[in-house]
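ARCHIVE RECORD
Type: protein–small molecule complex
Small molecule: molybdenum atom
Source of inputs: curated submission
Record status: active
Notes field left blank by submitter.
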Amino acid sequence: MHLLRERGFVHPLASEITPRAAYLSRRQLIGAAALLPLGAAKAQGARPGRLAPLAGGRSTVAGALVMDKPTAYTDASTYNNFYEFGTDKSDPAQYARTLKPRPWTVAVEGEVKRPGTFDLDGLLKLAPLEERIYRLRCVEGWSMVIPWTGYSLAELVRRVEPTGNARFVQFVTLADRNQMPGLRSSVLDWPYAEGLRLDEAMHPLALLAFGMYGEVLPNQNGAPVRVVVPWKYGFKSAKSLVKIRFVEKQPKTSWELAAPSEYGFYSNVNPQVDHPRWSQASERRIGEDGLFAKRRATLMFNGYEPQVGQLYAGMDLRKFF
Ligand SMILES: Nc1nc2c(c(=O)[nH]1)N[C@H]1C(S)=C(S)[C@@H](COP(=O)(O)O)O[C@H]1N2
Ligand SMILES: [Mo]
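STRUCTURE (tokenized, with ligand):
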């Protein structure tokens, strides 16, 4: 908190975040698409954002298709955290136009037998694309349900063959001042870096995503390729990935460096472990924030406990927050 204040930015309290209703037009609120429960892309029209189509087959991974109603595309693409484009929720949609998602490469280095650089087309062809409908829970206390297109990160991990020394995976994202006006602020150490334990990265629910709602990712959601780790707070899901590094020691993450007492390495969604400045017991589902909308109870591991709980057996989750 002190660090964040010194850097001239205070992470907003969940209660201070502008209610979604203030952003929504009447048409969006009563639009038929918002009322349809299933098949997000179809429900919102074939071209929700009028970007290039990117379809995925139905996933057979356990837990990959949550039944909650998908968030409206307009919300998922206009209410974003992507600090490289500013710290307001509306900044990424407004400023990420300058991001150039092609040509794009992702370098894989460190403790792997087959290091190298993948271009986007090579990455897209590495494994069959699937649709996954995941909950995403931000540490700030709001959540969405987003249909992603991608494949398990494990596909890429297996392809590059980690050595016996690889215990963690670091994700490094683009930091280009010419494309990203937010880099002028020192709110975080750039480039934005995140990390997972190798077994977490290998879990089939950990996703390498290239699209959402049946189209390529909009820039503000992390084009052209990002990570999505649905059982962890949203900030673990690094956008606009340029480097994956396999390492022996637990890597430092940007959020840990900014405020170590507030953002741990694990950051598993856990309603029993509060953020030092606010409760994590409940959340506001974006799109449900009318005057009388109820907050939802936050679920252990964001509801993915049956699938991922074993990864943390015997660990003190207060200590490893
Ligand atoms: N590179 C980068 N990735 C990032 C962030 C960021 O600021 N920069 N914000 C994170 C946070 S806090 C959240 S909640 C999610 C939001 O993803 P979405 O906008 O696609 O919903 O992206 C995460 N990935
Ligand atoms: Mo977040």
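CURATOR ANNOTATION: The chain has one domain: 18-312.
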